[in-house]
Amino acid sequence: MADASWTSSAKSLKGVILDLCGVLYDSGEDGGTPIPGSVEAVKRLKASDLKLRFCTNETQASRDRFVAKLQRMGFDISVCEVFSPAPAAVAVLQDRGLRPHLLVYDGLLPEFDSVDKTNPNCVVIGDAAEQFSYQNLNDAFRVLIGLEKPVLFSLGKGRYYKETDGLNLDVGPYMKALEYACDVEAEVIGKPSAAFFHSVLHDMGLEPHEVLMIGDDLVNDVGGAQRCGMKGLQVRTGKYRPSDEKHPSVTADGTVDDLAQAVDLMLEERGGASLTSCWGRAGGETGDSLTQ
Amino acid sequence: MADASWTSSAKSLKGVILDLCGVLYDSGEDGGTPIPGSVEAVKRLKASDLKLRFCTNETQASRDRFVAKLQRMGFDISVCEVFSPAPAAVAVLQDRGLRPHLLVYDGLLPEFDSVDKTNPNCVVIGDAAEQFSYQNLNDAFRVLIGLEKPVLFSLGKGRYYKETDGLNLDVGPYMKALEYACDVEAEVIGKPSAAFFHSVLHDMGLEPHEVLMIGDDLVNDVGGAQRCGMKGLQVRTGKYRPSDEKHPSVTADGTVDDLAQAVDLMLEERGGASLTSCWGRAGGETGDSLTQ
Questions:
Q1: Are residues B63 and B78 in the same domain?
Q2: How confident is the model at residue B288 (pLDDT cuts 50, 70, 90)?
């Protein structure tokens, strides 16, 4: 069972980390659609005294590109506030002197411009979507199986995500495919890796117990944050499924309809009635649909 | 360590089961090439007093088709001697009243002609090779994730196989991808499933200890057979890799260079010198390269 502590602990929070896809917007062929109320919710968080960062496993586009897309949707967001796996992977590769074979979406390739990719001695896999052809997966497999000690990095390990036309396979299933084919365990870069969350906390200058993670992915957003000592809140948008609320191993600190409701409840608890009235919502109205 | 019992126990054998791809032939774009000596080795087995069956996880073509291909290569083989996963899957589907969504190679579809595929309530995955596009895997995923209790059948669970141009991903990695995406465990039909091996033994009318399985896949051929009580011999052709001989959990009862050598050693042990001389090999010559 979720405990009821997240709203009552909202007063002691000093920062919030937001997932992007499924929390701010739903992705789709047209570039995606903002989730109702989320543009305003981000504005309100920015106007509050809470520190705000964005933490995503987005690997279909370079950070510059997808931040620009979010800005076009109306979000107040800048590149330096966003943590994504590709820049973290580049740092790891350079640190360990590794040369990757890349199985990633074409849009992500610019992130790896600075990396030596000749004579690869590892594989980096991201959400390549329709570029996950048999040929491309097999090429990555052949690189790995040809190495004396295969090294596989996976940019996240999500199972699937929601686009406007339905659920789509994420990078995780393909990571599992290569793990099985080569009898190797991937190193995950991105959520739910503790190293990845800690890099965000370090940038915020905050301790885990001072920060709330809000995401649509129960295991990778909520569970990952909780394992780092943060609180984790799930929204009923994006890839949320009702069965998440009965998950055998991960229980969110709270579940809300959407980001707007999360921000309403949090800022009400911290700031009182004036914020509530400015958004025209009574506390009871939003509280009724809240699962804690 | 392998024990040295397989040749000494050859006298008590009553039957042999042969894998096809990697033992009789190497597959490839041109339909494949017989492995040197294997056509003759099958002939010698057929002329012996040993019962012979073929057991394959081949799922790229219907049984009629790939048996015809083997006949064109010169092999003495008929459909009724060959056990493959698709006919076994059809029996399971009909027994349990299940309607499959098929993610299989086009060439395998005729095997499922008799099966109701409307409004699917399970997924059957085979080695779809280049038809393992993102779209096709995602379609299968959406069927599974939409079921209250996802049911996934996998025709084998091989990691990869060898074609003339190199190693290629088999069905197993894609099975693992769907298992992870939907948090479900696949039911494997084909090697190394004990039910599958037992159906072959039943057809032979023999007990497990009376039968030797010869394959190139250490885990699925050799390990699967051993778990059923048979002896398992690995050939150094097909997908064999030197590291197989140091595998942490599966140790073949013997390892030979190829099927021809296996048959030489076995029939020598059973029949004495005349067979050896007729094949122009001295026991010592072949024995030197045998790992037991």
A1: yes
A2: very low
Q: Is residue B174 part of a domain?
A: yes
Rounded Cα gap, residues A172 and A156, in angstroms: 7
Last residue of a domain, one of A189, A210, A226: A189
What is the Cα Rg of chain A in Å? 19
pLDDT, tens only, B163-173: 878 899 999 99
Which pLDDT belongs to residue B121? 97
In this prediction the pTM is 0.79
Tens of pLDDT, residues B211-237:
999 999 999 999 999 999 999 999 999
Q: In sequence order, what are the residues at sequence separation of 6 or more whose Cβ sits closer than 8 angstroms to the Cβ of residue A155?
A: A57, A59, A85, A86, A89, A104, A124, A125, A126, A127, A171, A189, A190
Peptide bond into B248 cis (omega under 30): no
Tokens of B218: 């250490």
Nearest to A135 among B130, B172, B183 (CB): B130
Residues on chain B touching A176 (C-beta within 8 angstroms)? 173, 176-177, 179-180
Do A102 and A181 belong together in one domain? yes
CA distances from A13 to A145, A207, A230 (A): 47, 10, 10
ipTM of the complex in this document: 0.79
Q: Are B74 and B162 members of one domain?
A: no
Report whether pLDDT(A288) > 70: no
Q: How many CB pairs under 8 A join A and B?
A: 85
